[in-house]
Amino acid sequence: MAMQLRWLLSLLKDRRVVIHVVPFRRGAYRPTGAFTLYMPTTARPVVHTHTHFTSGFLDDQAALDAFESAVSELIGLACDPHESADLITRAANAHERL
Question: Residues 87, 90, 96, 98: what is their CA dihedral angle, to the nearest 10 degrees?
Answer without folding.
Answer: -90
